[in-house]
Write a structure and sequence with these properties.
By secondary structure, this protein is mainly alpha-helical. The protein has 2 helices and no strands.
């Protein structure tokens, strides 16, 4: 038997075995391989579709995230504006309250000053009246020892002094 030229029997057996192997592969092997290749192809297609959908959802999420960020920035700006307005109102209210309190204190001080002025004028008038009585008693040489006589003289002097304008100097 030579390797280059095979015998006729060997060729028959080889053809028969090849046919059986081909039949077995065609009957059970090729459909299994084809099915596995198709399944793999479907899985790859499915994975590609899922990746595309995931990419779309990520882009939508990115858009939503940007919208939320923009809305948050707008809300933050609005809150800052409202806080600024509230601060300005509080400051204005505090200024008004301080002005009102200052005006009240000034009015109260003026009232006290006026009362003290009136009291001082009363004391001065009393002192002037007493001195006038003494001077008048000495000048007139009247007896002004009685209360009634003193009061009449004081009233006359006060009326006389009250009719005259006071010097502002």
């Amino acid at each position: 038997m030579s390797l280059i030229t095979p015998d006729f029997g060997l060729l028959v057996w080889m053809t028969l075995i090849f046919g059986i192997v081909f039949f077995v592969l065609a009957k059970w092997g090729f459909p299994l391989i084809t099915r596995m290749v198709d399944e793999r192809s479907d899985r790859i297609s499915s994975s590609i579709e899922k990746a595309r959908k995931a990419e779309e959802s990520l882009s939508q999420l990115a858009e939503k995230q940007q919208e939320l960020i923009d809305a948050t920035r707008k809300q933050q700006a609005e809150l800052l504006r409202e806080a600024s307005e509230a601060r300005d109102k509080i400051i204005a209210s505090a200024k008004e309250q301080a002005s009102a309190e200052a005006a009240g204190l000034i009015a109260e001080a003026r009232t006290k000053i006026e009362a003290e002025k009136e009291d001082a004028l009363r004391q001065i008038r009393g002192e002037v009246a007493r001195l006038s009585v003494e001077v008048a008693g000495k000048v007139l040489l009247e007896d002004l020892s009685g209360d009634e006589a003193q009061m009449r003289l004081v009233d006359r002097i006060i009326d006389t002094i009250g009719d005259r304008p006071l010097d502002a100097s």
